[in-house]
């Protein structure tokens, strides 16, 4: 496409003046896509609750924490709701920590339109942060911001720094990437300059087509498919000017970033900043909504967690054992069972013999007797009558489920929908009081379609018979009843038809767990590709992604010619996978995910066994107050709960010894609170048949010639070791 030269920036280029300028941010409150329909027809995405707090609060809290002084909040769809919320919240008060200026446009249909509109307001005076209102982060900005300013001083053509983070090594193991296009980036390993960006990369093709000039002009580059785009950028004011001069730029990445990388005339440069230990994620679809909610509850996003960050007039929730958060005025029947990693909002009442696990319950909800809720997100003022069953669904404000109603996995019930008595809503159904618009633009930039263009003749939820519980597709319902009922036992709401791909692809975007058959399919495909690639010709791309010549050395182990993965990063990935597994993922799925991680990092089976054991033991800390007695009990419970997983990965004596050595290492370094109870835990591992007598005695014998400092836990276990050796003799005497 034809490019125009960017105009001269209105901001000053004087370094001293730039240093005096307040740090500004442009926050896009409109994400310009349809992925949260039908919910976003009635409420803007940035105001949807994420663990009972509007998404935009997480973004604004982060901007305050990194020192932003001026925020320009761009609103388009449902602008009045956004402005009203900001005005009534503490963000609109003088003590908020920064000033917020709302910029409203009713005609912007893309991010490009939004930035062009902001440029016309002439409010940006220096480098600014560009972020969307559905982004959660706890990272520090200091290092990246300084690096961006230093590059700008040396090279005025530097216009943007993009934040990226390393993702899981396989799409299989990272649920938030399922449903999103894979990304490939080419990055200069020295300067971190972005050289190539493809947001619709197809890894199944096993080939990459690059322009020859890219290879000719760069001595080396890394091709990365293991990075996620954090959708947070540090921009120069010139970014707005470039958008103004290029009206065909609509999408921030697909048009702007790729356009600059292909433009030889302007010569503008984009750099990357990779974050490591911090948390950053964007709520892009329902699946990432589920994953990020679990991350928040499990405190990966600290301090942006329910007992620290709470919005407006909402009551602060208190953290209890096993990752359970409850507001002070929650009313629970004595027989209610609350499972791990659950949050319950203020004023909610739960009746007798009901159970709630791995779920978020909003405020002022009324839940009856004998109700089962697993993996769900129940928003405010929801009524759930006796005997209902809800599994991995989203239930919006004001919804009413009558007695015996069932929600199968993946169901979305928009605002004030009613589900009749003994009705089963099929998996992946979306139900709304609003009829489905007939025209839905396929451009991902458009957040809302023209609702005046007509509607689809959608079936009513009333068309579901109480006896009809096995529908495969919503389109199979009787369309003759596709009218909105005024009430009655059947329910109130329209059932939306699926997108172009049909229900068979809905699992990609859903809050429901990934079907086991899909995991197996990915796993088998990955294994087949590894086998075929190992038999093929060698390429010039290393495992790290660097393009090199044949004479250049690689990161392969010289001893056996195999690439050695980073064990510490592998352990971290396993730990994150295990933490999410505690949120309700089936054990079979966890085994598949950890196996794919082991193959991706190319670690040994023994190292994998040690990493799994470490994750299990660490989980005991969360469930205890670290006192000796409670920690031991929590550890026993953790071993019992994960016995099947441990047995799956610990299959021989060598792996059992690796587990003991890993436990020694943990007690000496990262989790010293386990040191006093080492021998007790070792005894429990033996009693529960996770570790055999042969492995324990072999571990003792290997320590015979070790230094005294390495025998600390052998000495602590002397009584247990003596019992092991004498127990068989006593058995023989008894016989």
Instruction: Please state the overall shape, judged from the principal axes of the Cα atoms.
Output: globular
Strand content: 15-25%
Strand order of the largest sheet: 15-16-19-22-25-28-31-34-36
Which spans have pLDDT < 50 for at least 5 consecutive residues? Answer: 1-10, 170-176, 441-452, 467-489, 533-564, 730-735
Number of strands: 36
The secondary structure category is alpha/beta
- Helix % is 25-40%
GO molecular function: guanyl-nucleotide exchange factor activity; translation initiation factor activity; translation initiation factor binding
InterPro entries: ARM-type_fold (IPR016024), eIF-2B_epsilon_N (IPR035543), eIF2B_epsilon (IPR051956), LbH_EIF2B3/5 (IPR056764), NTP_transferase_dom (IPR005835), Nucleotide-diphossugar_trans (IPR029044), W2_domain (IPR003307), W2_eIF2B_epsilon (IPR044123)
Family: Belongs to the eIF-2B gamma/epsilon subunits family.
Keywords: Cytoplasm, Initiation factor, Protein biosynthesis
């Amino acid at each position: 496409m034809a490019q125009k030269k960017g105009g001269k920036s209105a901001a000053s280029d004087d370094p001293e003046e730039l240093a005096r300028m307040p740090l500004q941010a442009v926050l896009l409150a409109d994400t310009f896509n349809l992925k949260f329909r039908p919910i976003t027809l009635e409420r803007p995405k940035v105001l949807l609750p994420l663990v009972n707090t509007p998404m935009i609060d997480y973004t604004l809290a982060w901007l305050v924490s990194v020192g932003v002084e001026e925020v320009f909040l761009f609103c388009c769809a449902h602008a009045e709701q956004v402005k009203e919320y900001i005005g009534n919240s503490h963000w609109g008060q003088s003590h908020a920590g920064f000033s917020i200026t709302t910029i409203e446009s009713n005609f912007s249909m893309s991010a490009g339109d939004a930035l062009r509109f902001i440029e016309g307001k002439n409010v940006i005076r220096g480098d600014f942060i560009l972020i969307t209102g559905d982004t959660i982060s706890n990272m520090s900005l200091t290092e990246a911001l300084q690096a961006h300013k230093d590059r700008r001083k040396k090279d005025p053509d530097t216009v943007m720094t993009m934040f990226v983070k390393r993702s899981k090594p396989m799409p299989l193991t990272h649920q938030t990437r399922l449903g999103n296009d894979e990304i490939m980036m080419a990055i200069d390993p020295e300067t971190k300059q972005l050289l190539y960006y493809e947001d619709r990369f197809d890894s199944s093709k096993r080939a990459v087509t690059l322009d020859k000039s890219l290879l000719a002009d760069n001595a080396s580059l890394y091709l990365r498919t293991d990075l996620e785009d954090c959708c947070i950028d540090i921009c120069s004011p010139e970014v707005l000017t470039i958008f103004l001069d290029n009206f065909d730029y609509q999408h921030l990445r697909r048009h702007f970033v790729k356009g600059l990388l292909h433009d030889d005339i302007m010569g503008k440069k984009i750099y990357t900043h990779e974050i490591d230990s911090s948390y950053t994620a964007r709520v892009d679809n329902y699946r990432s909504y589920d994953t990020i909610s679990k991350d928040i509850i499990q405190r990966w996003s600290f301090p942006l967690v329910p007992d620290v960050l709470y919005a407006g007039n909402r009551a602060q929730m208190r953290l209890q054992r096993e990752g359970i958060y409850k507001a002070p005025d929650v009313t629970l029947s004595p027989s209610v069972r609350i499972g791990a990693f659950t949050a319950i909002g203020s004023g909610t009442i739960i009746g007798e013999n009901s159970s709630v696990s791995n779920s978020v319950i909003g405020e002022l909800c009324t839940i009856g007797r004998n109700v089962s809720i697993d993996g769900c997100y129940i928003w405010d003022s929801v009524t759930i009558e006796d005997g209902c069953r809800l599994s991995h669904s989203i239930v919006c404000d004001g919804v009413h489920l009558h007695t015996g109603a069932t929600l199968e996995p993946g169901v979305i019930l928009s605002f004030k929908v009613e589900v009749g008595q003994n009705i089963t809503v099929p998996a992946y159904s979306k139900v709304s009081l609003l009829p489905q618009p007939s025209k839905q633009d396929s451009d991902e930039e458009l957040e809302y379609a023209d609702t005046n263009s007509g509607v689809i003749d959608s079936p009513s939820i009333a068309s579901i018979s109480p006896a009809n519980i096995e529908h495969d597709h919503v389109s199979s319902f009787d369309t003759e009843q596709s009218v909105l009922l005024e009430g009655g036992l059947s329910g109130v709401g329209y059932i939306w038809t699926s997108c172009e791909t049909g229900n068979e692809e809905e699992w990609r975007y859903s809050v429901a767990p990934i079907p086991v058959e899909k995991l197996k399919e990915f796993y088998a495909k990955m294994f087949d590709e590894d086998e075929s690639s190992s038999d093929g010709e060698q390429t010039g791309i290393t495992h790290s992604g660097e393009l090199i010549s044949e004479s250049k050395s690689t990161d392969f182990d010289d001893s056996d010619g195999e690439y050695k993965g980073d064990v510490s990063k592998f352990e971290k990935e396993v730990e994150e996978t295990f933490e999410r597994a505690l949120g309700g993922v089936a054990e079979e799925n966890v085994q598949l995910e950890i196996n794919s991680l082991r193959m991706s990092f190319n670690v040994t089976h023994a190292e994998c066994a040690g990493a799994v054991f470490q994750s299990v033991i660490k989980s005991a800390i969360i469930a205890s107050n670290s006192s000796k007695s409670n920690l031991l009990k929590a550890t026993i419970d953790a071993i019992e709960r994960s016995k099947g997983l441990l047995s799956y990965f610990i299959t021989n004596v060598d792996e059992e010894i690796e587990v003991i050595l890993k436990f020694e290492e943990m007690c000496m370094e990262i989790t010293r609170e386990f040191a006093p109870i080492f021998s007790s835990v070792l005894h429990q591992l033996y009693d529960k048949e996770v570790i055999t007598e042969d492995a324990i005695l072999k571990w003792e014998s290997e320590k015979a010639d070790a230094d005294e400092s390495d025998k600390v836990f052998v000495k602590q276990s002397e009584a247990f070791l003596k019992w092991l050796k004498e127990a068989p003799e006593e058995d023989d005497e008894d016989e």
